[in-house]
C-alpha cells in the first residue's frame, strides 16, 4: 500500500489467576532493552497477516509456555511516547486461568516468567501499570 | 526500530445521534477505491507520532467538518483481510451528538457525509457492519 507509516503494532496478554482467593497476574522479566530486567506483560509485535488475538496467544505461549485457547480484547494503547524505541501501538488482551493448574516457563526474549500477587507487584515497564488498572476494572464489571 | 512490519494502522469514528428518539449514525461516501461509492464511518490512517483518539477526531473533522472534543474507544479490528489493500488494523471510536444541532459537510476524501437512520442503512464498506453492531451494543450497556 502507498501509505507510509512509522508505527509498530504490538499485543500484550494480561493473564489473571483468581484461585483460592489469591489474585495473581502473570508477568515476564525483560531480557533486553528497553526496560531490561523489569517486569511486563507477555507480548510482542504482530506478524504480517496475523490476527490480533492470534498474535497475543502466540506471544503468551512463546514467552511463558502457557497456551490459552482464547483471550478477550481489553483496549488499544497508542500514546506515541509509550515505547522509547518509537511509536508503538499495543492492543492488550486479557484472560483468566488457575495458576495452580498450569505450568509456566520463561522462553523466547523473557528472562523469567512468574505469577505475582496483585498486592505485591514489582514496578512495571512501559505503560503496563495503566494497562493493569484497566484490566482490573474490566474484571470487576 | 529494527522491527519490519507491513501493517497499517487506521482509526474510525462511529458518531450516533439519538435526538427526538430517532437513532442516526454519521456515514461518509467513499470517493476512492476500495469500496468507492459505498458508505463507511469517517476515518483514515494514523499519522506518525499521533495519539489514536486525536487521529479519530482529526479524521472525523477532515471528512465531515464535525468537531468532537473527545471520543470513547470501542475496539481494535485486526482481521488481516478486512482491507483489500493489505493488512490494516483499525481502532474504532464512538461518540454522540445531536444531529440537529451540528453541521456536517463532506470534505477530504469523502464524496458525501450524511446522517442515516439506523433502521434504514445502506450497505457498509469494509467490516463496518460488524463495527456498527459492536457500537450499538456499547451504547446499550
UniProtKB/TrEMBL annotation, chains A, B:
Residues 6-140 form the Nudix hydrolase domain. The keyword Kinase does not apply. One of its GO terms (molecular function) is hydrolase activity. SUPFAM superfamilies: Nudix (SSF55811). InterPro entries: Nudix_hydrolase, NUDIX_hydrolase-like_dom_sf, NUDIX_hydrolase_dom. Pfam families: NUDIX (PF00293). Keywords: Hydrolase. The keyword Hydrolase applies. PROSITE patterns: NUDIX (PS51462). PANTHER family: ADP-RIBOSE PYROPHOSPHATASE, DIHYDRONEOPTERIN TRIPHOSPHATE DIPHOSPHATASE. This is NUDIX hydrolase. It comes from Cryomorpha ignava. The lineage of its organism: Bacteria, Pseudomonadati, Bacteroidota, Flavobacteriia, Flavobacteriales.
